[in-house]
Hints:
Chain A is mainly α and 219 residues long. Chain A has helices spanning 3-39, 44-59, 62-77, 84-113, 117-125, 130-160, 172-179, 188-213. The radius of gyration of chain A is 21 Å and the shape is flat. Helix content of chain B is 44%, strand content 23%. Chain B has 9 helices and 10 strands. Bound molecules: adenosine-5'-triphosphate and magnesium ion (MG).
Amino acid sequence: MDFLSVTRVLLEGFGQTCLLFILTLLFSLPLGLVVAFGSMSKFKPLAWLSRTFVWIIRGTPLMLQLFVVFYVPGMLFGISLFSGENGRFIAALVAFVINYACYFSEIYRGGIEAIPKGQYEAAQVLGMTARETFFTVILMQVIKRILAPMSNEVITLVKDTSLAKAIAVAEIFHRNEMAFLARGLVWPLFYIGAFFLLFVGVLTLLFGYLEKKLSYYKI
Amino acid sequence: MAFLEVKNLKKSFGETKVLHGIDFSMERGEAVALIGASGGGKTTFLRCLNFLEMADEGTITIDGGFSFDAEREYKSSQIREMCLQMGLVFQSFNLFPQYTALQNVYIPLHLRSKERIKAKYPFGKQRRQKIAEALEKDKARALELLSDVGLSAKANNYPCQLSGGQQQRVAIARALAENPAVLCFDEPTSALDPELTDEVLRVIRELKDKGCTLLIVTHEMDFAEHACDRVVFFADGRIEEQGTPEEVFHNPKSPKTAAFLRRSHED
Ligand SMILES: Nc1ncnc2c1ncn2[C@@H]1O[C@H](COP(=O)(O)OP(=O)(O)OP(=O)(O)O)[C@@H](O)[C@H]1O
Ligand SMILES: [Mg+2]
């Protein structure tokens, strides 16, 4: 096995890893906001439901959730929703999106609840609607407040994608195991480590840049 | 009928009765100081006038503006209309930290301009054009207001780059943008270092000279005495005494007023 062909195989796996990462963020970031609003709702049953859901998702292993999403629909309805390579990928995506939406929702909630009451009151006295208040006054302050915990969570997601191997999604570890580990080839593992370091390094720079961009004001 | 007329305003928080039926009125262009011991309900009164709290009972009427009756139900859009008739400057400024001084003043104003334009022009190019025109007008007005409070040079500074006194002056400009009928102040200088209070009080005095109608909760007795037309003394959720500064400060009728004034002299 030469370096180039290892690279080719691993890059394919890494492509899947990246895709899973990006799609998870794409869906879980907005969904998390919806869950956060649910948890903060003045309508008690909704808040209770939402918080219980978050508790369950955060309180059980992501691995378990992957298996549940992948196997349970088939057991219940006798149809396999997630068959084939794409099916497995989608099952993993669904589990990741739900899991991360719940984590994000708690970060959002913390950020939103930390905004001083005076900001809402000033907006109200100036005749703003609730919607205008949220989008023109509150949101930017929330983003600034949550940037650090979000960067932690996003970096964790990069590494969590490897769990998708549990349902045989062809992400980087799965590819490695099939192609190299099974044949006793160990060094590509370090290669994978370098991939992740690079990925996380880029994200760290990105978050650092965002933090700097938002540092023009203090809250 | 007076310019601002408040009748029998009552407010409780749970079991705690805070306002026991306030009757109060103001003439156009009058500057009224509201004084009184801590916990007397001054802040609650201003918050009711600005609909941050909903009074339990009573009415608030503004000449040519609106009439609020605690008995009736209001839609949130009606409450917003009423809010715009009143202005409030907070003790803690409450500027929006992510916006410059100029943006703090024109953004809320422009949101209202946009709302009015959207109601008139349902869609299309004309609407976009009107909004663009309004934006220029609103920015110009905001600049004018900032220059009125002496802050033209700081228009592009963020609140964190301004002193407390400057922040409070931006907050005053922001509150003036929609031309409120009555502008209320809740201890506008209490959060400021002593050397910064003067610049804010000077701005308030200038507003009075321009004919604005002002209602000011303050612990600055000098200011109440020399810059206001009338002084109202609040005690335990009631108006205990009111009159010209001369009457209230030098010939208080109520023993409670006298005791309060004596205490505030000692500090
Ligand atoms: N949201 C609230 N919930 C319960 N009680 C409240 C609330 N707001 C005010 N109060 C009570 O109402 C009373 C009057 O408070 P308020 O803040 O209006 O007084 P104040 O005259 O402004 O006092 P200060 O001079 O200290 O600012 C106090 O006893 C206070 O504890
Ligand atoms: Mg107060």
